[in-house]
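SEQUENCE-TO-STRUCTURE ENTRY
===========================
Question of interest: how does this chain fold, as expressed in backbone structure tokens?
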Amino acid sequence: MPGRRLWIVMLAVASTLALVPSVAQAATTLGAAAGQSGRYFGAAVAAFRLGDPQYSTILDREFSMVTPENEMKWDATEPSRNNFTFGSADQIVSHARSHGQRMRGHTLVWHSQLPGWVSGIGDANTLHSVMNNHINGVMSHYRGQIFAWDVVNEAFADGSGGGLRSSIWTQRFGFTTGWIEEAFRTARAADPAAKLCYNDYNIEDWTAAKTQGVFRMVQDFRSRGVPIDCVGFQSHFGSGGAPSNFQTTLSNFAGLGVDVQLTELDIAQAPPTSYTNTVQACVNVPRCAGITTWGVRDSDSWRSGENPLLFSGGNPKPAYGAVLSVLNAAGGGGDGSPVQVGVLYQLVAQHSGKLADINGGSTAPGAQLIQWSANGGLNQQFDFLDSGGGFFRIRARSSGLVLQVASSSSGADITQQPDSNAASQQWRVVDQGGGFVSLINRQSGLAMDVWSASTADGAHISQFTVTGNANQRFQLQRA
């Protein structure tokens, strides 16, 4: 009975398509809205507040990235020499992991909130050893769990000089950036997969001497191969919001080959227009990876008297709606897909937390796509090439080859091949919510899938009938 068979096929197709949400629907939370363009939207969190139901409900619903307010600073993590304590920080990390949120680490080397035993060190050699030991101790504890670390925080002075501030570090090491370089090199060895950031305040105005001083340092580091991946702009603003040239600042730093992040955003009285302009500056710069507000509700803010955040009590403020609109309007790549052309990504499998990986780092055509633990390799980095009509080729950074399915069959391997823009090399990026996407092949209509939902290193990534399961969902994490 051909009519009956046709009806069954149509029903099966409809059932499969029902698993794929529309990409046109506007996101209703900050994290999901930012995720449409491959960004995050986070909040700084205090461990002692996690037991507050109102606080944790907003945090878990709205934010896709978490930064500890104080729990990873030196006085909290190494109160006496070689005595590392991680209880409160671990509580935040555990909470974030259980709710599918990523972590920013804050901060490893800072002149403030140091325990007295560090501030009292008078010998440069001892301080070098202590600094490196602290970086290694903290980063090894959280190895593989932190998206980005604020390696060095607030090293530059305010004012017209554009140089380093006077601190225990410059008093012992001198007014050069050599100790900052040392901190970054130590951090890279401690956790090669984590992004390494320099973080500071009052560096948002492109014309400011402090901004120029930080820019020169980053430019120098990049030219000499010092491992710096990102610059954090704290973004503590008055009611007028960001300076008019903020986007220029972000673009110029991004032009050095680093990501830029708004790491501690708050704006006095939270005017919707000021929040709109600030967030728009970020979304206009492809390498602006995400935004974090310093706190969740006004009552949690260090500037609580100025009501600078997006929530008052449990209620979103007008600025919240303004930010959500900007993020939704930012969208992503072709036809609303949550990717951007020209940005490098890691494809993180939701069920395993492991990365799509070209097997063995091969640059040869035919090398298999597998999953592997994050290792910082170029064979775990991909960019997207627009094929039109809402489809993209996915190009491996290590080889310049693109991902291709071997056939239209369920279970067919995915390998890297020379770019021919064939339908077997084209993928639609479908938003699954919560910062995750499915990748659907144009030729077959099947989804990129970790074989048998394995969590093991080396498991093949192939194509399979669309189910919407976690082994078919990937987070587009900027590389």
Q: What stands out?
A: The chain is about 30% helix and 25% strand.
